[in-house]
């Protein structure tokens, strides 16, 4: 049996040798990507970062009492949305370009939007659907039908439950509710642990290690959000503004939930040993819950939030509260349409596409795969411009107009963060004159030019300081017709 096989291999080897003799110099040397610089995002964090805009829904007894923090003594009978339609919520999110929606399954008042078997302070005791309803289920169904991912918020602080303040009893109760939420409703992509707590609330030790381990056990691709991560960190304010310096890296050992330094959270740490990117949570209205007296923020406020969150290496978690009918109000739906349409108007055209591009150097030489043309493709992570390792400084990339001048007022720069966040300082020159500068870039940096519109033939981005050779994955030159620099410079 062995013989035919031997002749066959012999034939293959001979052919191979022959080919080598005919084409002796066909040796291909492909330059590999540079080594990553730690820490790196994990898979779930990288997916989360690319969402850019996600949506929060604060809904519960507070919607009906006109409060922001319930007392825990609300009568469940007040929870009676007459036209609740989670499909309308998720449609609103989809129209805004959102791929993840997060619901307050339980807020500080302790009222549960799902029929938890561990409490009767829930939809079970409400007149809505005669106590047979489950808002979490309807929310999950609506999201699933639209291909949108789900996140859940379960408030640690509970003003209703008598066990709150008794460490073992309350932690048992809390972990039981976590198990219900993370077992019953399919995939959950983000869990939100709010650090908020009243100043005279009972003392309470949360068993975070138990919570996090349980969450990871039940959901393999979830991101755990809290002031201190471990998956995503709070940005340190509720305005939707990240720091102008915004690192995805930080030292987790310096953070504690409900008690972290807001400035440190806001800017992160270039020496941070943990990848823990910031999320900017802000409400479209003044309050987190719906109030008759409040209206949605105007378009220019929403755009400012966008530039200072998504444009500063963050994901924007925008809260849109359903009203007492159980619907997103028309005014909010309309404002979100304007917001999405404005973002599309600004970013759908990239003037850099029509330019010729040069760079200070490129890894692997010409055709090495790391040329500056990579910043104009649609891959904003894994194709990038990289300079040569040998060039220690003076890294730059330049765009030149081919005929008429470039007219823009927004510049977008993105780093290949899959290999670590690197850039610490950069400057922008148009026709040789410096017009803007900044520190970090990260996944996305948007410069909305304070000087307003620029008319120029060349645009050069200079990297002046970096933790390792800079890797730039995308650049855009855009025109924002909504930006009137004179009125709005801060
Ligand atoms: C919580 O503990 C601190 C320090 O142990 C104490 O000063 C404070 O009075 C306690 N608060 C309550 C509400 O029990
Ligand atoms: C964070 O940790 C790194 C490594 O231990 C250290 O060099 C750096 O100083 C720390 N950052 C702060 C703000 O302490
Ligand atoms: C938008 O609202 C803010 C207050 O939040 C106000 O200062 C600003 O003038 C408004 N802008 C426009 C264009 O209406
Ligand atoms: C930007 O440039 C100005 C003037 O040269 C300088 O004072 C400032 O520190 C720079 N800012 C950053 C973030 O590099």
TrEMBL record:
Protein name, per record: alpha-L-fucosidase
Record domain Glycoside hydrolase family 29 N-terminal: where:
76-338
- Residues of the signal sequence? 1-24
Compartment(s) where it occurs, according to its Swiss-Prot or TrEMBL record? Secreted, Extracellular space, Apoplast
> In which broad location class does this protein mainly occur, judging by the first location in its UniProt entry?
secreted
GO terms under cellular component: apoplast; lysosome
Query: Belongs to which family?
Result: Belongs to the glycosyl hydrolase 29 family.
* Keyword Nucleotide-binding attributed: no
Pfam family of the protein (one): Alpha_L_fucos
Q: What enzyme category does the UniProt record give?
A: hydrolase
Keywords assigned by UniProt, alphabetized: Apoplast, Glycoprotein, Glycosidase, Hydrolase, Secreted, Signal
Picking any one GO molecular function of the record gives: alpha-L-fucosidase activity
Enzyme Commission no: 3.2.1.51
Q: Which GO terms describe its biological process?
A: fucose metabolic process; glycoside catabolic process
């Amino acid at each position: 049996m062995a013989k035919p096989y031997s002749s066959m291999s012999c034939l293959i080897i001979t052919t191979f040798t022959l080919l080598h003799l005919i084409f002796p110099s066909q040796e291909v040397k492909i330059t590999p990507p540079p080594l990553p610089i730690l820490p790196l995002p994990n898979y779930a964090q990288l997916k989360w970062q690319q969402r850019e805009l996600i949506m929060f829904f604060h809904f519960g007894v507070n919607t009906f009492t006109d409060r922001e923090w319930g007392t825990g003594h609300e009568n469940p009978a007040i929870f009676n949305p007459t036209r609740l339609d989670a499909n309308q919520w998720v449609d609103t999110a989809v129209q805004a370009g959102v791929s993840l929606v997060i619901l307050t399954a339980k807020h500080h008042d302790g009222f549960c939007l799902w029929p938890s078997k561990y409490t009767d302070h829930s939809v079970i005791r409400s007149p809505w659907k005669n106590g047979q309803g489950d808002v979490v289920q309807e929310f999950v169904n609506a999201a699933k039908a639209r291909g949108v991912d789900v996140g859940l918020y379960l408030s640690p602080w509970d003003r209703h439950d008598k066990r709150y303040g008794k460490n073992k009893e309350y932690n048992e109760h809390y972990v039981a509710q976590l198990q219900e939420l993370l077992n019953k409703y399919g995939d959950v992509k983000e869990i939100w642990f709010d650090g908020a707590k009243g100043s005279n609330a009972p003392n309470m030790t949360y068993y975070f290690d138990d919570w996090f381990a349980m969450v990871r056990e039940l959901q393999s691709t979830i991101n755990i959000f809290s002031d201190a991560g471990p998956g995503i960190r709070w940005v340190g304010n509720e305005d939707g503004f990240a720091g102008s310096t915004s690192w995805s890296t930080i030292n987790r050992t310096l953070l504690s939930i409900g008690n972290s330094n807001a400035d440190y959270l806001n800017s992160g740490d270039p020496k941070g040993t943990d990848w823990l990117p910031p999320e900017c949570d802000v409400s479209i209205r003044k309050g987190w819950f719906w109030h008759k007296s409040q209206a949605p923020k105007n378009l220019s406020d929403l755009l400012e939030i966008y530039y200072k969150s998504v444009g500063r290496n963050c994901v924007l978690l925008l809260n849109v509260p359903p009203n007492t009918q159980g619907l997103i109000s028309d005014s909010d739906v309309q404002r979100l349409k304007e917001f999405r349409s404005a973002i599309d108007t600004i970013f759908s055209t990239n003037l850099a596409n029509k330019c010729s591009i040069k760079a200070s150097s490129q890894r692997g030489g010409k055709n090495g795969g790391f040329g500056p043309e990579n910043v104009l493709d649609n891959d904003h992570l894994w194709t990038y411009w990289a300079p040569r390792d040998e060039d220690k400084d003076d890294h730059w990339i330049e765009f030149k107009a081919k005929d008429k001048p470039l007219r823009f007022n927004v510049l977008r720069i993105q780093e290949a963060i899959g290999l670590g966040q690197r850039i610490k300082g950069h400057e922008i020159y148009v026709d040789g004159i410096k017009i803007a500068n900044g520190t970090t870039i990260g996944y996305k940096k948007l410069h909305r030019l304070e000087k307003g519109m620029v008319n120029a033939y060349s645009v050069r981005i200079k990297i002046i300081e970096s933790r390792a050779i800079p890797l730039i994955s995308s650049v855009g030159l855009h025109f924002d017709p909504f930006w009137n620099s004179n009125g709005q410079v801060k």
